[in-house]
User: Fold these one by one.
Assistant:
Number 1:
Amino acid sequence: MWVILSKSVNVWQAWAHVMQPATVTRWHRTAFRQFWRWKSRRKRGRRPISEEMQELIRKLSQENPLWSAERIRDTLLLLQYDPPGEDTIRKYMLNQTHLDRLLRQYIEAYYHVARPHQGLDGDTPVPHEKWASVAGPTKLISTPVLCGLHHTCIRVAA
């Protein structure tokens, strides 16, 4: 308030002796309170999505764990829905069950089994049988782990 008064009234210095310090302090507190009330007001965010769309996103996410939010959005477009943005889809994909499954898969399928470079003597923390070498022509089969972030590869006869 003091700043506004000083900029709008040209001769404020002449009236400064009339104002009490408590009045100026009250003006500052009031202006501060009003500014932060305005600054932290409720703003409009994303439009809410229907319960049906939320359930459809969860269903697609659970039935297709390797699908990303982009893939789910494209599928919803193909099904002639009006899908929300990818961040909103991601919000409904990542729930506690999904995170528990990813963490369990990380520990059981990757951390303890698929990191030979991290273990003692080049072995994994949980020992597993070594793959026998295959004679003759071979092909490599890749299996996705951690929703495709890592792959385990096995050499088999062609």
Note: Residues 2-39 form one domain.
Number 2:
Amino acid sequence: MRHTRTNETEYRIWQAWSELRRGAAARRLRKSVLADPEGRPLDVPQVDTLRAVVRNDGMLMGDVARALVIDPSTATRAIDKLEDRGLVRRERLTENARFIKVTPTEHGRETVAHIDANEWHYMKLITRRIRKADREKLAELMEALLDGLDNVFADEMANGHQERAPAGTHPR
């Protein structure tokens, strides 16, 4: 693959993305931030699921899967883990026993508040090392990146397929 300035920039973005996702500092940050008030860690899907349930003050199981854009069986496994930890509870609706409502426990609400406070604390620590003008630009660029992600996957869904990288196009 011929390296152009654009390719080099895309490569740097890709490297930074990989480090954010998988790097040692990111793992330490997740372990510190994504934990209940007693310090027991949760994984990212558990946090996302718990947040959705807490912020909606309870949800039907099917709505959890739809809100997180995940398979219903994946939502069920996440809810199983949260229920085992006493963060949510499930109950069948009396008016229609086919539906199961998931509601947060007090400990689940406290855990989301604790994680939100930790994330905000670390975000302030991280971003205060960046000049204000650069923070503004970073926010714009992060929003543009998210829009780009949304658009790529919306296009793929509309076209009914997922684009795959051609063989041998790794940037380095």
Note: The domain at 36-131 is CATH 1.10.10.10 (Arc Repressor Mutant, subunit A).
